[in-house]
Amino acid sequence: MKFEVDTHTHTYASGHAYSTVIENAKSAHKHGLKLFCTTDHASSMPGAPHYWFFVNQKVLSRFLEGVGVIRGIEANILNAKGELDVHPHVYPNSDWVIASFHEPVYPPVDKATHTETLMNVIKSGNADALGHLGNPAFDFDFEKVITCARDHHVAIEINNSSLKGFSRQGSKERCYEIARMAKEVGAYITTGSDSHFCETIGQFAETATLLDAVGVPEEQVITSSARRFLDFLALRGREPIPEFSDF
């Protein structure tokens, strides 16, 4: 399977990444992407930028280096209520919100609590996707959460960094199980490189292997074409982005 969109990338603004948005755009172009989401960490993550950084994303050009820019954020899940650390002023200036567990913000609890938390995140309507769910530190009921995500049109991320073992050790087999469940219940899947350095943007060898092995239909993978991704945003209730009307 090929991919035209990378929905999870970071710049040095996240505090532990190493590239600029221009460098990321150049790499996205080099690797054949049509769109990429810039999704720096929200402010509760140590080293992350102030919320004004995200409010001001409106100044970003819609095309950099010939690649479309989706203005996004990787939000931290804060508590079992499913609350995210996204300031209300940020939502109107964002196209894409990933919600993720991060140990420095939400210490792992137990499977039942993680399941409740994720379902509350989904039902809140504030997240477009759930990030790097393969992390074994945050076990959850795959069927309950992924079925809930399907029902509320929230995408399930297959995170290429997790598959490569760069982070969240022990995620790989869980990612395969998550993809199998998503296929079974008909949930949408998104693919993110989770790049913290520009060279890995749009690099999805491990993700492609997983999706092909599991046999996930292309129409379930919103990153398989720019149009499919933009249609998913519309399904989520997002306003059309005029600059991308030709996709």
TrEMBL record:
Cofactor binding: number and manner: Binds 3 Zn(2+) ions per subunit.
A Gene Ontology molecular function term of the record: phosphatase activity
GO cellular component, one term: cytosol
GO aspect biological process, one term: bacterial-type flagellum-dependent swarming motility
Cofactor: Zn(2+)
CDD domains associated with the record: PHP_HisPPase_Ycdx_like (cd07437)
Binding site for Zn(2+) 1: H8, H10, E74, D194
Entry binding sites for Zn(2+) 2: H16, H41, H196
Polymerase/histidinol phosphatase N-terminal domain ranges (all copies): 5-79
Binding site for Zn(2+) 3: E74, H102, H132
Transmembrane segments: none
Keywords, ordered alphabetically: Hydrolase, Metal-binding, Zinc
NCBIfam families in the cross-refs: PRK09248.1
Family assignment from sequence similarity: Belongs to the PHP family.
Protein name, entry field: Phosphatase
